[in-house]
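Private note to self, pasted from the team thread so I don't lose it. Backbone tokens:
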């Protein structure tokens, strides 16, 4: 039997000045009613977040939650509007970055991942990123080919806010507060 759905959204938010302009994309929205505590948003404060920022959020928020949640299947709505070259999202995830993030998810749900294309506005960026992810799903070995990068200072602030906001609902995040705060 499948568990309840759990949603984690990483997106540009710019304090509500970026689409979807709604508080539902803020870190304070954790779900409604019986879904309360089953939604985590990691809202970037500005443009240009890239591989290092997403990997930091993946490693410090999404992966510990996925481990505790122990999903039966992962439904991945892959929005490539955060891809480098997509001027609508204006973030900087490389195809290698997307491949790395997907590779990190393969250890969950016995590798059962359904990936659906959700967004993106630059055909070349979408094609390159989807190709990198398809290779991961087909079993190609992934090697990160980008230079050592550091997340923005604001990324750590956002991760801290997300953890603090969700700590009451997700006890596995308690130990992370010590290392991130």
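Design output:
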């Amino acid at each position: 039997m499948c568990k309840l759905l759990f949603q984690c959204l990483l997106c540009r938010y710019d304090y509500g000045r970026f689409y979807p302009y709604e508080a539902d994309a803020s870190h304070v929205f954790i779900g409604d009613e019986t879904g309360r505590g089953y939604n985590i948003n990691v809202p970037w404060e500005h443009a240009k977040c890239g591989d290092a920022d997403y990997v930091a959020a993946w490693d410090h928020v999404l992966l510990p939650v996925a481990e505790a949640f122990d999903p039966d299947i992962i439904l991945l709505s892959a929005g490539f509007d955060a891809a480098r070259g997509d001027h609508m999202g204006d973030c900087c995830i490389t195809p290698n970055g997307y491949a790395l993030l997907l590779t990190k998810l393969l250890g969950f749900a016995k590798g059962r991942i359904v990936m659906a294309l959700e967004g993106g506005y630059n055909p070349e960026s979408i094609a390159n990123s989807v190709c990198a992810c398809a290779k991961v799903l087909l079993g190609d070995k992934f090697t990160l080919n980008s230079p050592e990068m550091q997340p923005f200072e604001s990324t750590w602030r956002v991760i801290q806010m997300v953890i603090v906001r969700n700590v009451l609902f997700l006890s596995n995040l308690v130990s992370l507060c010590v290392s991130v705060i």
